[in-house]
Amino acid sequence: MSQIALFxxxxxxxxxxxxxxxxxxxTIARGTDFRFEDIRSVFYNEFIxxxxxxxxxxxxxxxxxxxxxxxxxxxxxxxGVLKLAQSVTDLLYQFFPQSVDILKPEISFIYGExxxxxxxxxxxxxxxxxxxxxKTGGKVVGFGAEQVILVRDDSAQxxxxxxxxxxxxxxxILECKGLEFQDVLLYNFFSSSPLKxxxxxVYDFMEKKDLRxxxxxxxxxxxxxxxxxxxxxxxxxxxxxxxxxxxxxxxCEDSEEFAAPMFDFWKKLGLVQVREMDESFSQTMLMxxxxxxxxxxxxxxxxxxKYQMATMCFERAGDTNWEKRAKAAGLRATADQLRESNPQExxxxxxQAAELFDCIGRAExxxxxxxxxxxxxxxxxxxxxxxxxxxxxxxxFTSAKSYKLAAKAYADGNYFLECLSACTxxxxxxxxxxxxxxxxxxxxxDDGTAKQSKEIEKVGQEFLESCALSYYKLKDHKSMIKxxxxxxxxxxxxxxxxxxxxxxxxxxxxxxxxNFKEAVEIAxxxxxxxxxxxxxxxxxxxxxxxxxxFTSARSYELAAKAYADGNYLLECLSVCTxxxxxxxxxxxxxxxxxxxxxxxxxEKIEQEFLESCALSYYKLKDFKSMTKxxxxxxxxxxxxxxxxxxxxxxxxxxxxxxxxNFAEAIEIAxxxxxxxxxxxxxxxxxxxxxASLLIISFVLHRSLWVTGNRGWPLRPFRQKQMLLKKAMSFxxxxxxxxxxxxxxxxxxxAHEHISLHELLQSLTYSELCKNLTVELISIRRILDAHLxxxxxxxxxxxxxxxxxxxxxEDKISLNHVSVxxxxxxxxxxxxxxSNIMQYLKTVGKPDDNEWLEYGEFCLNYFGxxxxxxxxxxxxxxxxxxxxxxxxxxxxxxQKQLSENQVSIDGRKFASAALSxxxxxxxxxxxxxxxxxxxxxKLSIRESFSLFCQSIxxxxxxQLMKFLTESFKFNASVERRLENFLRPPxxxxxxxxxxxxxxxxxxxxxxxxxxxxxxxLLEEVIxxxxxxxxDLTYGQIGRVVMIWLGSGKPTDDLYMKIAKRFEKNFSxxxxxDSLQVSSLRHSGITxxxxxxxxxxxxxxxxxKKFSLIDSFHExxxxxxxxxxxxxxxxxxxxxxxxxxxxxxxxxxxKDYFFTTKYSFVEWLVYLKADMYPxxxxxxxxxLSPEIIFDSVVMMVEQFLFNxxxxxxxxxxxxxxxxxxxxxxxxxxxxxxxLLHLNSGKYSNVLSHLLDQxxxxxxxxxxxxxxxxxxxxxxLTQDWFSLNATVEAFRRxxxxxxxxxxxxxxxxxxxxAIIIDTALTxxxxxxxxxxxxxxxxxxxxxxxxEANAPNLCxxxxxxxxxxxxxxxxxxxxxxxxTGSGTERNPQMYSGLSEKIFDVQISTEKRQHEE
Length: 1408
Hints:
Helix content is about 60%, strand content about 5%. The chain is mainly α. Strands 3-2-4-5-1-6 form a six-stranded parallel β-sheet. Strands 9-10-12-11 form a four-stranded antiparallel β-sheet. The protein has a three-stranded mixed β-sheet with strand order 13-14-15. The radius of gyration is 63 Å and the shape is flat.
């Protein structure tokens, strides 16, 4: 369609319209498929719609659409053939309506017989028709010129042609398109079809048209466009084949397998007749033709490019000339086809065609073939000799590079340009000149040929230029100039020579002709300024221009001479300077001084010349020669100004030093940032103290920021030791105090190894003398020594150090390190770094602030000098390549003061230095954190004490808190910190271990009283209350457990806890009561707590809930809750809270019994100096027995229900086998304490211990001490105080008897006795609790009043325990708790159960 649209642009008469005709059913060529409706659409869009903008109305009117006309009557073919063709188009209309125009059927008034279907026989139809004589070469009639055999493709054509020879025309359907014949034999169309049995789809059409008979196959495919798309092409080819005949059509298939559907279709319609294929019928098919008819058919086939069949026709016609012509054309076409696939064979065939064309007189065709073969010379001769075409002959000779023949051919045809071009290409320049001369002679002189003469001149000029250019390319400049001289004008010569860059030849030409001005310009153009100068000087007499040209040519001596001759003084000295002709310049100056009238001007010129000479040597880096001319300057000021202007500070410094100008030399050294040199000059000037301090400052920042170093550690550098010795030598000339200062600074700055003891001495000195340099470097080196040590070299503290500074210094003095000393020196270093950062934050502010003492060290550390320049404070970088400057990037703008100095803004310096300090603190702190974590892992691996592990945890917490609160790290460091253990959770497990006796050591108690410990535990509280949603019993339990185990939290934390406890009224009431109780212990009334706006409890409610009552109520609610719920309170937490409740209840008496663990936990909670008043503790409104009974019931439940208890333990993620025995022991201890404090529950305790599943979980020494084997019949109860004391001692949790008031009863037993009346200070009580075994002493005289039936005797032996009956009456009020699980007879005969007591050692020895 797009090709049709091109007619709009290529046809001149587009406005006249177009007529398109054709048959869309015959579009069988590959890639061709259209309908006339499609053409109408293209014509409308391209020719009408796009032409609406035309300004000519008539043109728009002409462009209108025409209707499609159907040519219905056929004057060529008879009706029988047309009906058969119409049956094929009907199938196309049905199956492919979009690929063909649907037209009315064609009609014809010509009569003819119906098409014939030839039934197949055993022999092929070809053999029957043409007989066996074809193969043997016999004589047969064969088909005539108006008969044809149509086959599907080339391979079928080749096979049939081989069988019939030249007795019939054989064409493919595609080849016969556009041709017509009297008779057509369509052979094996269906047998060779790619559709094969898919032709059965025709039955689908017949069924739809009600044309099927019962004899037709029942199974056939339904039409599918995707599966039968090729059917469209097959039907169109069949249509074309049918419509090639004018009279007779024979359709023959060797096999009817695939043809049957179409044959049945045609038979059903009655469109065909069926005949047997035999010899008699074959004779009727044959028809003879005359030679004229064969020639006519041959010419038609020739014109259709069917050369093979055309050759056969001419052969049958006996026309040899046409036969050779057709054969030659066929060979040429074959060669074209083989050109890409087989070029060698193509050339052979093409040469045969060329020879045939030449033989029959087709000279032009023969020449074209020879051109295609590349035989251009032969083609040229044919064009020249036989075709009389000199232009084509010349072109061929040129392609053959036969330039002489080409020139002759072009000349004969008067093709001037082509002739001279051939001469140029063949270097036939003289021949070209002869042709030019001949043309000029032959050119007539009349007006009609004047134009031709000008053309010849123009062509001649171009030829001469091409000749000259050719010689130029051959580098034959002599011959080139010969032709250039022959140019018609000087302008043409100049233009040509400039275009090819032959300026030297043009310069010679201009100079010869006396064109000196043009010669000078050419010399300048080619860069030959010396030659231009000589022309100016020698030929033109212009010294100024000559001097300028000599200067450009760097011929400075010639330039100086030229300027001198013209009295151009400044220019003369300038070129002397440029050419380093300094002595020559001085000679000219001397000459001018003699002749000049005024000397001052000469002196000025002389000074400028000397400066230029010195500057020239400076640029050549010949400083020795430069100094020679500088010394010749007229004044010292001129020398200083000059040397400063060119930055030769070193030379000026040497000059000033030589002259003894030390003050000026010092300023110069300061300007160039050369501190060692400045120190030397200060020393020479007698300022020894300043020199020594300056060296120390230089060594400090140089050691820190030597190339590649990042500010630490101190690195060696060249001359470091020499500089330190020089500082010492300068200091020796000063006071002893100053010398000691320098010695200490040199000691810490030196790179040599220095012991910890020596570093400590330097640190001690720095603290006394307030030498910040020594202090900071000593601390950092001590800290590095810790970080460099392996974990095995660290010593561990067994107790909390009160004076960590003294302890750390003691360790360091012995060259030892410990965990405590590491943290001490890290804190010292961190504090000093913090002070430095505080100073940096004040940079640019008024100087009267407290951080100024750190300013000098900070500037020395970073290598920065603070100077006042033009009333402004400037900060000079002594080492602009230091890493701290590089890492800050472009955060501040640097100002170059000199070659060695860079100045920066003070605030920007402070910002950059602050960033470095922060990074350094973070880096060192991370290293300390790594070291402490490694120490912690070592303590775990080596099973160090709980105190050692806890100390590490607290240090880790301290470090991590500092890092996270002080710095914002990148993602990698954040991930690194996340990989550290969580100290709060782990420390919580250490403070409240499953085995409570593990934490019952004095150093752990001391540690827990520290603020760091409390902060760590408060982190656990925050972690538990920070989660969203309601708090679980597990979270509540842990919060209360920490509160009771570490003391009252901060007011802010209490507010947060109270707000989170709001939905659990019982626990909220308890913590409110606990807060009031804590305030009471601190001497503050509850009115302050009642002012808490977050509290929902009114003042009246405080009177309703005492501390003990609210505690008991909260525990009861927790106990009754579903223990299977998520995060229920763990067993250890619940038992801990029960123990704390009982301790509060025990305070209701004058004295009470408890364990060392419980009492120590109580003391840790108090956080007060004095033991509290009893009335502020035991504020219960409930009877103690009620609380005791509920606790006993709880204990029984846990002990008897072993399976449930184990499940509870497992749910709390504890090891059941490890913790269940600990829990059982703790519960039994609670029962023992209840019995001792109430005188009841002995029967419950006895029954529990009788249960094997309970007693088996208890330690055997504990059981043996608590219930000795019965060997003697005793009248007293089996459970004794002494037995309890011994049992508790054996489990590592001694019994403690606490006296709260005066006149309370005495007890003679090895328990720990605490009298709060005599020893009210909590610290003293704590020390008494942790006295070594056997050192406990009675705090008050023993009295027997108010203690009936309690003491029955004294202990006479360490092995003997006093049996004390604590029971005042039989236990009749015990809650049975899990009564359904007990033996109903468990309470009977308790008084009759008397057990054996242990026999004393002496009695056993006596019996033995």
